[in-house]
């Protein structure tokens, strides 16, 4: 399969007053055409920052290193004016909070049509027509009325549909969705995921789904990448990782997810807290919380290594993982 | 929208009445009267004068007489410049004062908005530091002091502009007084604009706009300026009232033929009719500006809809 995005040795650093924080380190992955990649991790694992960096949307004190190749062009370090010829056209992004991600002072149709005017050179009228068609396509009833509405006149789910429509207007090669369902209630979440599935298939768009909700991953993604402390710790197909996790952190995540079929009094969380990126533990970042950690884990950081069958993991432990041991 | 404006205009009536009442009685609380001078008048003359202007009646009766006349559009006579009615005095000085105030208002608002926006876009870089410094100077130096400095530097030492006085239609005579009025207004506007623009540039919706590849100019023009204007617009009403009252002082310093000269001497001479007349007229201007500001608000923020 053709690769649409190839990220190599990417890093993201933030400069604070006294120190530097490495939000993402040594990140490498590729995204194939039409594929859905889930990026999973706790808050502060660097999953959002990695993709904001690819979009050139880091905060002012943020710096990105490495390469993110979209075809022959490297998105990292590209001048903003040049990046603007790709953002919104070849690569688009949907954000977590639809309540604040739309401009409250502009009509929906203005915010949609400007994308087509900019990237496709449409005149205003044609751009609005196309925008309305797209609103219909993302399942918005009465699209003409909604196009003339302001964002505050729409519900949260409706606004997220508008965001999806906006991102897909130019039929981008890559769509990055940063926790697109987190702010929505559960019934709307399911509709939204269906929509993602259908539309990315229709347009042949590759989807990156940033989430901490494993239920979302199971429903939509083909492959997944688990991140911890700014690094990818395990990669592979969703089936492999769900049924045969090889990194203790992946295992912990799976076991801390509630199951409707399993009768349990309490959830099984991973003990401890996510590490501060400023003071990562020596050796493997996960060692203070890991039930399988041994002496080597305390001194030597495990590299992300190929374990065959398209899987990679960053862990020294090779033995069997019975779950009871973690808790 | 029309209904809203009508109701706002109607609701201005009780506000105006309260303001007139407060002004009337507060003015009478001040000791002395229009006919107290260094040389005491003969008692009969004083009594005649007081009777002529109804000052011998009980205060509450005077109040009703004044309000009754006011409702008919009559501001009454000036008690010190006894050849003129208050309306005539206002008509002589007010157009100039309003011209001065509104020119300073328009220039100051534009300068303030542009400076604030530039500051915000270049946050923590040298243009920002320079602008913030200028804004602070404009804000903290009081207008009578700034007026004297301007006269001295640009009027006397450099001799670029006349240091005072007025010739009809002469723009150079207006440069220094308008500059003195513009500085604090532009400063306050710029400070507000800088703050709200920085906030808007950090919002999620501006990030969305960047993710669409719109380019800096379009993002600023279409996505950032309108929401950033909101807090600034709500300042413009009080801002104009600062300007108009400030212009009274500035006119005096620059010896300009506005209402300022009369207003200040009227206050000192207890020329009740003239002080009240000026205050009431200002009040109406400020009420009108606040109404315009509220209507502007609805245009800027679609969440505000007046019914």
Comma- or semicolon-separated keywords:
heterodimer; A: about 325 residues; Rossmann fold; eight-stranded mixed sheet; 11 helices; B: about 300 residues; mainly alpha; MetI-like fold
Report on the architecture of this protein.
The complex is a heterodimer of chains A (327) and B (307). With 327 residues, chain A is α/β, with parallel strands linked by helices. Chain A has two domains: 3-90 and 170-325, Rossmann fold, CATH 3.40.50.300; 100-169, no CATH class. In chain A, 31% of the residues lie in helices and 24% in strands. Chain A has eleven helices and twelve strands. Chain A has helices at 47-54, 80-83, 108-120, 124-137, 143-147, 156-168, 186-203, 214-220, 238-243, 248-255, 295-299, and strands at residues 3-15, 20-32, 36-40, 62-70, 73-74, 91-94, 174-178, 206-211, 223-228, 231-237, 305-308, 311-313. In chain A, the strands form two sheets. Chain A has an eight-stranded mixed beta sheet with strand order 6-7-8-3-9-10-12-11, with helices on both faces. Chain A has a four-stranded antiparallel beta sheet with strand order 2-1-4-5, with helices on one face. In chain A, a hairpin with a 4-residue loop joins β1 (3-15) and β2. In chain A, α3 (108-120) packs across α4 (124-137) and α6 packs parallel to α7 (186-203). The mean pLDDT of chain A is 88. Chain B is mainly α and 307 residues long. Chain B has a domain at 89-266: MetI-like fold, CATH 1.10.3720. Chain B is 76% helix and 0% strand. Chain B is built from eleven helices and no strands. The model of chain B has no long low-confidence stretch (mean pLDDT 85). The chains are: A alpha/beta (327), B mainly alpha (307).
């Amino acid at each position: 399969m053709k690769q649409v995005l190839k990220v190599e040795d990417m890093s993201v650093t933030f400069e604070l007053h006294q120190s530097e924080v490495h939000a993402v380190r040594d990140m490498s992955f590729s995204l194939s055409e039409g594929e859905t990649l889930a990026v999973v991790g706790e808050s502060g694992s660097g999953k959002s920052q990695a993709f904001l960096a690819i979009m050139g949307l880091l905060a002012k004190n943020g710096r990105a290193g490495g390469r993110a190749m979209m075809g022959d062009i490297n998105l990292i370090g590209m001048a903003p004016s040049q990046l603007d010829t790709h953002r919104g056209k070849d690569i688009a992004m949907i954000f977590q909070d639809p309540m604040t991600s739309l401009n409250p002072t502009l009509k929906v149709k203005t915010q949609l049509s400007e994308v087509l005017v900019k990237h496709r050179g449409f005149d205003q009228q044609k751009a609005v027509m196309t925008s309305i068609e797209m609103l219909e396509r993302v399942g918005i009833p009465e699209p003409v009325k909604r196009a003339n509405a302001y964002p505050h006149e729409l519900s949260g789910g409706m606004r997220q549909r508008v965001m999806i429509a906006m991102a897909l207007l130019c039929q981008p090669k890559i769509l990055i969705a940063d926790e697109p369902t987190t702010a929505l209630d559960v019934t709307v979440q399911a509709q939204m995921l269906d929509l993602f599935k259908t539309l990315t298939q229709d347009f042949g768009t590759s989807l990156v789904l940033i989430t901490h909700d494993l239920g979302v991953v199971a429903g939509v993604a083909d492959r997944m990448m688990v991140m911890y402390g700014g690094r990818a710790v395990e990669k592979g197909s969703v089936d492999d990782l769900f049924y045969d996790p090889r990194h203790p952190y992946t295992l912990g995540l799976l076991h801390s997810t509630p199951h409707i079929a399993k009768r349990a009094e309490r959830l099984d969380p991973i003990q401890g807290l996510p590490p501060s990126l400023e003071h990562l533990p020596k050796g493997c970042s996960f060692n203070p919380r890991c039930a399988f950690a041994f002496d080597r884990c305390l001194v030597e950081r495990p590299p992300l290594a190929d374990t065959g069958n398209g899987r990679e993991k960053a862990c020294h432990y090779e033995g069997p993982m019975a779950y009871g041991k973690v808790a | 929208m029309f209904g809203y404006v009508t109701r706002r205009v109607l609701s201005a009536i009780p506000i105006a009445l309260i303001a007139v009442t407060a002004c009337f009685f507060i003015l009478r609380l001040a000791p002395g009267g229009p006919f107290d001078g260094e040389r005491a008048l003969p008692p009969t003359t004083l009594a005649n004068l007081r009777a002529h202007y109804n000052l011998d009646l009980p205060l509450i009766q005077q109040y009703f007489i004044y309000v009754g006349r006011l409702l008919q559009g009559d501001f009454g006579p000036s008690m010190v410049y006894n050849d003129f009615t208050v309306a005539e005095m206002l008509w002589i000085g007010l157009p100039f004062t309003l011209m001065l105030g509104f020119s300073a208002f328009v220039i100051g608002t534009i300068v303030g908005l542009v400076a604030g926006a530039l500051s915000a876009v270049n946050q923590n870089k040298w243009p920002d530091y320079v602008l913030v410094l200028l804004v602070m100077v404009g804000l903290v130096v009081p207008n009578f002091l700034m007026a004297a400095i301007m006269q001295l530097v640009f009027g006397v030492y450099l001799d670029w502009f006349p240091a005072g006085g007025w010739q009809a239609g002469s723009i150079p005579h207006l440069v220094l007084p308008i500059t003195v009025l513009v500085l604090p207004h532009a400063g306050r506007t710029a400070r507000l604009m800088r703050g709200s623009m920085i906030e808007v540039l950090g919002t999620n919706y501006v990030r969305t706009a960047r993710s669409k590849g719109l380019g800096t100019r379009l993002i600023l023009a279409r996505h950032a300026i309108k929401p950033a204007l909101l807090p600034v617009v709500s300042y413009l009403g009080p801002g104009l009232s600062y300007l108009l009252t400030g212009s009274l002082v500035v006119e005096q310093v620059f010896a300009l033929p506005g209402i300022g000269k009369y207003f200040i001497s009227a206050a000192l001479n207890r020329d009740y009719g003239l002080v009240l007349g000026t205050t009431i007229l200002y009040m109406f201007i400020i009420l009108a500006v606040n109404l315009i500001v509220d209507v502007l608000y609805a245009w800027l923020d679609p969440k505000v809809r007046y019914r």
